[in-house]
Amino acid sequence: MKTVNVDVAVIGAGSAGLSAFRAAKARGASALLIEGGAYGTTCARVGCMPSKLLISAADVAHAAATADAFGVQAEVRIDGRAVMRRVKSERDRFVGFVVDSIDGIAADERLRGRARFLAADTLQVGEDVQVKAARVVIATGSAPAVPDMLHGLGNRALVSDDVFDWDDLPESVAVVGAGVIGLELGQALHRLGVRVAVFGRSDRLASIADDELNQAAISCIGNELDLRLGATIVSAQPENDQVTLHSRDADGRERTEHYRYVLAATGRKPNLAGLGLENTGLQLDDRGIPRFDPLTMQCSDSTIFIAGDVDGDRPLLHEAADEGRIAGSNAARYPHVAAGLRRIPMAIAFTDPQVMAIGQIARTLKPKQYQTGHVSFANQGRSRVMLQNRGMLKVYGERGTHRFLGAEMVGPRAEHIAHLLAWACQAQMTVDDMLAMPFYHPVVEEGVRTALRDLKENLVKQVYEIEHCSDCTPGI
């Protein structure tokens, strides 16, 4: 049995693990990066990047199919093999960048094999290596969850990871789950000519908290995509080269339909099985995740830290990278741990229209703490020019201080507006500060100004008129 001694052992070479490893090294600690699966990160291999490649192809197809509204005639023919060829080729390119980065790490600082705790400071890696680590960072990521009823479908039941290995687009797919992943992939496949139905147990899309925004999203997306909200999957049976799916709608109506595949998009679960957490003495929550401080990433007062999707907190790449840096830095400087930078929460769904939420929103605020401003994009100038005049933005401000607190949106260019508003929120700007900023004409961001003006009126609660100007006419 070979024994390796190290200051910091990092379990997992994904986005969080790589950040943790580099942060520990930057503080002068000896570090070891342990990976039991394929290199390449979830984002590059099966997440952010390949999904956006598929969505981009779908957006082009949709733009061509709807071009006649602009007086432009276009004939659309989807070559599924060509679509997937580009998705996989570019996916492999992104993965290659990550693998090249890992290959640049010294060989004696990398170890392949499944890790398991024998004690809080001892790991068994594979069959023949023990790692004695003064501190450990758990960064093992997460994996798609599959409902029990789909387990009997064999290769007809898919998770999102499987989509990006297709050689061609299938004729039909039933998507189980109306969260971000289910909606993004479901809408993209629909626009690429696949017959798609999306089944959601609740009446919520993409975890949208606000009722009015949720209804706007249902109206917009449901106009093109077959949404089955409040639906129950009664049974799913394999039959030859397809699946017989029996479902019950929210109104009690039952259907029996056939799909080539069933795609489970019902969330992800942390990769903790087989990690031997029972040997660490850590306190676990009801999900089996170690309890930790989200500012230091330390598990209780132990020498073990956690980062990334495995902690079940904010399963997003930029959050994983931040958590990894905090965990790796604190593991290196232990016992002198310190709170790290946690940025304003920001989440984006790349549906059409896009969905975003930043900062604090109604779900996380006390009723008497805030006021709301809003704008509809139905008649917003630039949005109407682009025929993307759908959806709504809500902004939140603090009573008394008028500090900007956060926003939720379903509408055009939400990915860019999310960043604009997140920066303002993290800078602790007031609503007046934001209204003093320049707004060009005509741009979608003029809708932000309209919402902020509405918010200011609701905050000041006075009768005097705040000057209004139309977003679709010249001048100010």
From TrEMBL:
Keywords: FAD, Flavoprotein, NAD, Nucleotide-binding. FAD binds at residues 52, 140-142, 309. NAD(+) binds at residues 177-184, 267. Disulfide bonds join 43-48. It holds the Pfam family Pyr_redox_2. The active site is at 441 (proton acceptor). Belongs to the class-I pyridine nucleotide-disulfide oxidoreductase family. This is Dihydrolipoyl dehydrogenase. It comes from Oxalicibacterium solurbis. The lineage of its organism: Bacteria, Pseudomonadati, Pseudomonadota, Betaproteobacteria, Burkholderiales.
